[in-house]
Amino acid sequence: MKILTFGELMLRLKTPEHLKILQADTFEASYGGAEANVAVSLATLGNDVSYVTKVPEHQVGQAAINEIRRFGVDTTRVLRGGGRVGIYYFEKGTNIRPTSVVYDRAYSAIAMAEAEEFDWEKLLEGVDLFYFSGITPAISCEIEKTLESALMLCKEKKIQVVCDLNYRGKMWSAKDAQRVMRRLMSYVDVCIANDEDFESSLGIPAYDGDMSRGIEQIESYKEGMLEIQKQFPNCKAVASVLRNLYTVEDGDWMGIYLKDGKFYESPVHKVHSFEAVGAGDAFAGALLHSLVREFEPQELIDFSISASVLKLMIQRDFNLVTENEIQRVMESK
């Protein structure tokens, strides 16, 4: 089965150790981005996955492409051109000091791209499953437009669509997100909604904003998941990650999955994280892998949350773990 993901590939500049951005005089460079992270997870797990984005033709753009290609992602559908790669600055928190991210992604190659540059008839050729997150339509009106064109063609070609709502308040308002995402949800077969995604992206209440007691709110999450399916009957399954976060490093994590009117709950994982970046993308990548491999629903959610918590122990954006490593985490519960 051929999978295609679509989003922005960015340069990540991280401060050394736990320095604040204000203190740093050097930064560690790597690459990432939600849909790129998912693509790398899928490739690492042995799937046939391609990635669509746009990056400049200069050395930084090529380095970004090289980084995901070396892990097995097909980059032949990447568009080239434009002036810059988007950047995000990453400051790792600790204990009660939160992690901080600063975006510098305005006027990036993909943000300046025109909708007509993306030939979806060609880009979707041979594709069985299409993945995007709510970050992608927030990039620009043109990317929102071309994404909807892709989704319309997916519907016509009966290509399965999976979306992680992935709300980013630094990119757009809840009002704008709901205006766009409620429309795009009419094309989505499987949805991932975490924490504030329910309300910010779709206007559906499920979570009160208290990160220290997400798991205790499981019943309201379930009500929100059922409401998603009620409002968007084309959505056949909904998944979510629930967390109790006590400090930046310490927390309890679990997943729930709704399919065919039944909820499936994973065990709770107690974790002390090393770097809390990309865990949601790791969850999404493992969920897609589970769909492609036709895992039973309980195995799907157990596998997905195990991949997610394993990512918390790995630096940088990509979840470079094998199926056997994820299975070992599953078996430990």
In brief:
By secondary structure, this protein is α/β, with parallel strands linked by helices.
Integer average pLDDT: 97
Q: Tell me the series of helices and strands, N- to C-terminal.
A: EEEHEEHEEEHEHEHEHHEEEEHHH
Backbone structural class: alpha/beta
Number of strands: 15
Number of DSSP helical runs:
10
**Could you estimate the helical fraction of the residues in percent?**
25-40%
Shape: globular
Instruction: Identify low-pLDDT runs.
Output: none
> Major β-sheet, in short?
9 strands, mixed
Ends distance: 30 Å
Give the percentage of residues in beta strands: 15-25%
Specify Rg, calculated over alpha carbons. 18 Å
Key features?
single chain, 333 residues, alpha/beta, 9-stranded mixed β-sheet, 4-stranded mixed β-sheet, 10 helices, 15 strands, 34% helix, globular
What does this structure look like?
This protein is α/β, with parallel strands linked by helices and 333 residues long. It contains 10 helices and 15 strands. Strands 1, 4, 9, 10, 11, 12, 13, 14 and 15 form a 9-stranded mixed beta sheet that branches. Strand 12 (237-245) and strand 13 (250-259) form a beta hairpin. Helix 1 packs across helix 8. The protein is globular. The two termini are 30 Å apart.
Secondary structure layout:
Layout: E1 2-6, E2 10-14, E3 28-32, H1 34-44, E4 48-52, E5 54-55, H2 59-69, E6 79-80, E7 87-91, E8 100-104, H3 120-123, E9 129-133, H4 141-157, E10 160-164, H5 174-184, E11 190-192, H6 197-202, H7 218-231, E12 237-245, E13 250-259, E14 262-265, E15 269-272, H8 279-292, H9 297-311, H10 323-331
Parallel strand pairs: 1-4, 1-9, 2-7, 5-6, 9-10, 10-11, 11-12
Antiparallel strand pairs: 2-3, 7-8, 12-13, 13-14, 13-15
